[in-house]
Fold these 3 entries.
Entry 1:
Amino acid sequence: MSYYDIDAILTDAEKVPCKFELDVPELGYLDNNPSQPLKAGTLVGLPLWLAEPLALTSRSTSSSEEDSKSFISIDLPPSLSNEVLSALKADPRAVPLRDQSHNFYGLGTRMLDVFEEREICAILRRTFVTRAADIALHARKAGATEDMGIGTGEDFLRGLEEWERILFRKAHEGTKGSKEWLEGIKKH
């Protein structure tokens, strides 16, 4: 992704649940307590761009286990919770991904940079492949009109997250281009 990619910027701005592993002076305002330090064990939602380096950096270079801990520990965001993953396992088409996160797959792949969860990777892959077939079908049907299916499949389009919307647009444009090409051949 590009440095200027708005989807990457929005994905990095998604808040993830974090637990501080040490007391931090002057950061009590993150827990609505400005005059106090942020206590160890406090749960706070931090943007992914900040949480990732804090979780991957150890406190010191010493070899003692207490000092080699990271500043925070990260949990999976609610959009990748067990409930959502279970629903995706059951039927990926039934889950409106945009309600979970506008950049669901982007967030999923960024979280896979932090967590090495093979199961999440497999669920995301299966979800994308299953939903891509439906997206292509809807884009082909919408190819008969100029409005990209607005009106006929609004509910379908509302549930698509950004990667899926891009896929829909590309499939729609491909169908429309193929149709124009075939009409041009028939004329000659």
Entry 2:
Amino acid sequence: MSQEAAFTSQRVLLNSGTEVGPATIYVSDGKVTRIEREYRPEGAALDAGSRLLMPGVVDGHVHINQPGRTQWEGVVTASHAAAAGGVTTIIDMPLNCIPSTVTVDAYQQKRDSFQDGMWVDVGTWGGVVPGNAGDLVAMLDAGARGFKCFLCDSGVDEFPPVNEDQLRLAMAELKKRNGRLLFHAEMDTGAS
């Protein structure tokens, strides 16, 4: 167990976000262990004074587009914009980068490309495309938070949609590690 750290302010966002008041938040091993509704600056790891102390926002759907399409948005602009808006964690989507994040090698290329310029915490989604079911468990082992697929055209050639059989195969692989799967459920039914 690590030593408990205290974070304090005269203005802490409490409860459902409707209450702001003095408080000290105690953290151990990365988890909040208790909150005292008193401003206690003595010995605090962070004394925010009169500045607002609040939880960071997590954005679970970000397209960083790196490597390959940084002219759309790269790690520097994505992470700087997130930090400026109070977002402390971004989860990057697997498409729009080249290569798309659909193999362990592509996953590692993406993670390596994030080494310089990242201002916030980052997680990454892997992608499910036709023929990559055998890569899914390895991508989970490498750190993917889960996977995304399309049942319709994704808008980029590098990330084709899966059909029902391919989706079932991917789900069977992900079940081995309790992996998450997000998908665009739109299907082309031929209706006009």
Entry 3:
Amino acid sequence: MAAQAPLSFEDLLPLMAEKFGGDGLIRELCNGFQLLTDADKGVITFDSLKKNSGILGLQELADDDLTSMLKEGDLDEDGVLNQMEFCVLMFRLSPELMQQSEMLLEEALSQQDFSFCF
């Protein structure tokens, strides 16, 4: 059996931040969250992640990889990702964006209107 090639991750968040600004990046993260959520529960579950990961081109991820993704972002350890946990995880997975995150956070907080996420 052939060994599976390691997945490569292209960090597109810095490009998105540059193109959309802080407010637009948060809006895009909210849209990404909505794509992956369980419509009935309003959170990302293992089943919703597995079902919807193909939308993002991640259909070849093994169940262990999906479980690891959930555990990595599950800050309150309830077994699912809420919107804030998802956004924090996306920032943590982007080393370049972490360096720019203070500026983006200040810009987003200055807007103080997160109603588009809910």
